[in-house]
Amino acid sequence: MWTQGSLGFVLACGSTDPTRSHFDAQDYMESGTPGIKNTLDGWMNRLLAVMSGRTPVQAVNMGEVTPRILSGPMPVASLSTGRNTAVPLAVDRPQVASAFDKLYSSHDALSQAYREGQEARKALLNDLSSSAEMQMANNGAPSPTGFAVDAQRLARVMRKDPRVTLAFMALGGWDTHVNQGSSKGQLARNLEQLGKGLAALQTELGSTYADTTILVMSEFGRTVHENGNGGTDHGHGNVMWVLGGGIRGGRVYGDWRGCLPINFIRSGM
């Protein structure tokens, strides 16, 4: 993607709030209001409120719990990660569904939320239902694991359903204070899975990739200096990754002004 010109990096990204708490930093990043804890909604939900369309599947979250970034009054659809994506729920049983349909048939807010949730679930499961198409897309190759599998599912939904305009996925495992490794080790393995997932996302999106913008961000960077446990600690600055058909990639954006010069002196023999 870098060679193709659709991947770029943005240097020196970080929050204006000096917190060292992962919980606070993540909250500020997703609410879009650094230092303010009483913001009620996430910035992607606020974005939904000003976008046209307003369908139950306009925003899709990959995960069982609605994240802070999508929380708010606008409806958000969720897909379970891993093998639980298409696992039937109790409400999928005809008898249960019929009873709930009658129970929530009025025009109050709860009934409306139920109907929107059911509509979103049916739409997303329908988008994922074609196993034959999935096998053709794989071209005989074994399915990847972890993030790549979820990325493929999300891309398939976005490609088949033009109503989906926003999506969110979260990945953990980046707090490498101990035994981080270098070109091999836990950080390198995580980055490899991230790379495979992004590649799977681009491939599965197909022509839709040209109209898609993907942003990879984190609440903390890592220090350059290794600590005593073979890991690295929290670094306040970070790098954002931007991918998509409309990105002028193949370059690094931003200007890093916070580094001190380091002199290397080779001692005599």
Task: Characterize the structure shown.
The chain is an alpha/beta fold and 269 residues long. The protein is 33% helix and 13% strand. It is built from 7 helices and 9 strands. It has helices spanning 22-31, 43-50, 94-103, 109-127, 131-138, 147-160, 186-205, and strands spanning 7-13, 59-62, 77-79, 166-169, 213-216, 221-222, 234-235, 238-244, 252-253. The strands form 3 sheets. Strands 5-8-1-9 form a 4-stranded mixed β-sheet, with no helix packed on it. It is globular, with a radius of gyration of 21 Å. The termini are far apart.
Keyword list:
single chain, 269 residues, alpha/beta, four-stranded mixed sheet, 33% helix, globular
Topology:
Layout: E1 7-13, H1 22-31, H2 43-50, E2 59-62, E3 77-79, H3 94-103, H4 109-127, H5 131-138, H6 147-160, E4 166-169, H7 186-205, E5 213-216, E6 221-222, E7 234-235, E8 238-244, E9 252-253
Parallel strand pairs: 1-9, 2-3, 2-4
Antiparallel strand pairs: 1-8, 5-8, 6-7
Summarize the structure.
This protein is of the alpha/beta class and 269 residues long. The protein has helices at residues 22-31, 43-50, 94-103, 109-127, 131-138, 147-160, 186-205; strands spanning 7-13, 59-62, 77-79, 166-169, 213-216, 221-222, 234-235, 238-244, 252-253.
